[in-house]
Specification:
Blueprint: E1 2-8, H1 15-27, E2 32-37, H2 52-63, E3 69-71, H3 84-94, E4 99-105, H4 106-109, H5 118-124, E5 126-130, H6 140-146, H7 149-152, E6 155-157, H8 167-175, H9 186-194, H10 218-235, H11 238-258, H12 262-271, H13 280-290, H14 304-316, H15 321-328, H16 339-350, H17 359-366, H18 370-387, H19 394-406
Parallel strand pairs: 1-2, 1-4, 2-3, 4-5, 5-6
Helix pairs in contact: 2-9, 3-5, 10-12, 11-12, 11-16, 12-15, 13-14, 14-15, 15-16, 16-18, 17-18, 18-19
Length: about 425
């Protein structure tokens, strides 16, 4: 068996690493590639790197879908500085009958003769050298030609284009509040967000943690909104995403009318439907995992709101209760809703693509009285559910009754609608 060892700090692992491993496996005719996150590499002593367990977990997530990729934690288990010779000796003991290869970047190949026990390393493994960006005028082949002859016999150049992706650049983007989407596998991106890795504590943060009464500067709100918008685009069909865009538009218009924070309402609007098109099985599983209240289980369609509210904190570090409560109750409503909650709920009902009997009336009422518009709209929703023998959440009834108590006993036009706000 031909086995390739791919060592590195992987801080974090990114798509360039996976492409490199795949090409090396094909060019080197390898049967297996073993990823081995470095413990404490000699060239990085004194530098801050992510905790070993985090780096190992990210590598496992990234490599998990390719059966020919394996992950070893051997170097991480060592407390002392890690040298390549120690690693390849350990590999030889594990695979005494197999042909071993060590994957390195062409930038490292130029310095390889100076490595600790370089000659001994080449007695155990063959080097597979791959191009690396930013290597000046010399390419991998030119570097190979400058090596001593006994080294050249144990080095194979891998033919692949340079990829301008580096872990340093990814960390820099995170610290600047920029997206790393498509630069790392989605599972790794989720892991980085969940564990708040690489954040610049005094500036913009990747997950933009927002707590009650936390006043964020404009740039951080933009980052937060961008991340949630991108996630919504991933999760939703073009049809549903157009609906969300309409909700953002209507929510901003209502926010201006009723004095609601426009930045917050935009974030809430992008977030509210991210789980709307999940399969029922996924909704129920996530609701169980997240501990969603039983009152929402009356209809599986109601679960997407409270799930999205929980994901706000879990995926984006967004814990502002004004936003999360509005997202949670945007479909079913509840008694004692805040103005912010009413704005999101009503924007969901009147956004431009909504078509149902009476929607124009609700749109007219929306800019005169939030309560009157919501009361009329919820009457239509209740009628719609009753006609189809569907369950009605008690929160919806409580909200509807409260709003009618707050408006004149007989609305000016006296009409009712027959719409479905979901």
């Amino acid at each position: 068996m031909r086995i390739g060892l791919f060592g590195g700090t992987f801080d974090p692992i990114h798509v360039g690493h996976l492409v490199l491993a795949t090409v090396a496996m094909e060019e080197g005719k390898l049967d297996r590639v073993i990823f081995m996150p470095a413990g404490l590499p000699p060239h990085k002593v004194g530098k801050h790197i992510a905790a070993p367990q985090h780096r190992l977990n990210m590598v496992k997530l990234a490599a998990g879908r390719e059966p020919r990729f394996q992950v070893s934690d051997w170097e991480l288990s060592k407390e002392e500085v890690s040298y390549t010779i120690d690693t390849v000796k350990w590999m030889r003991k594990q695979y005494p009958q197999d042909e071993l290869f060590f994957i390195i970047g062409a930038d490292m190949l130029a310095d390889f003769p100076t490595w600790h026990a370089a000659n001994e390393i080449l007695q155990i493994v063959t080097l597979l050298a791959v191009p690396r960006p930013g290597f000046g005028e010399l390419n991998a082949q030119q570097v190979w030609e400058q090596l001593p002859e006994h080294f050249r016999r144990r080095v194979q150049i891998v033919d692949m284009p340079e990829m301008e992706i580096a872990s340093t650049w990814i960390r820099s983007r995170i610290q600047s509040g920029k997206s790393i989407h498509y630069l790392v596998p989605l599972q790794v991106e989720d892991y980085i967000i969940q564990h708040h890795l690489y954040e610049y504590r005094l500036g913009i943060e990747q997950t933009v943690p927002v707590a009650a009464n936390d006043v964020l500067d404009q740039s951080r709100w933009i980052v937060c909104e961008q991340q949630i918008r991108e996630y919504a685009m991933e999760q939703l069909s073009p049809y549903r995403f157009r609906h969300v865009e309409g909700v953002v538009q209507s929510a901003v218009e209502l926010a201006k009318k009723y004095g609601v924070d426009e930045r917050k309402i935009r974030v809430a609007a992008w977030l509210h439907d991210v789980a709307r098109e999940w399969e029922p099985e996924r909704l129920l599983a996530e609701a169980d995992r997240l501990g969603i209240e039983q009152i929402f289980y009356i209809a599986v369609d109601l679960l997407h709101g409270p799930i999205a509210a929980k994901l706000a904190g879990e995926k984006f570090g967004l814990f502002d209760p004004e936003i999360t409560q509005a997202v949670k109750y945007h479909t079913c409503g509840r008694a004692a809703m805040t103005v912010f909650e009413k704005v999101l709920c009503l924007a969901d009902a009147i956004e431009p693509s909504r078509v149902y009997p009476g929607v124009d009336q609700v749109r007219r009422l929306a800019f005169n009285s939030l309560e009157k518009a919501l009361a009329v709209q919820f009457d239509g929703t209740i009628a719609y559910l009753l006609q189809r023998n569907k369950p009605i959440c008690v929160n919806t009834l409580l909200a509807r009754n409260e709003w009618w108590q707050e408006v004149a006993e007989t609305p000016a036009d006296g009409a009712r609608t027959n719409g479905n706000n979901s």
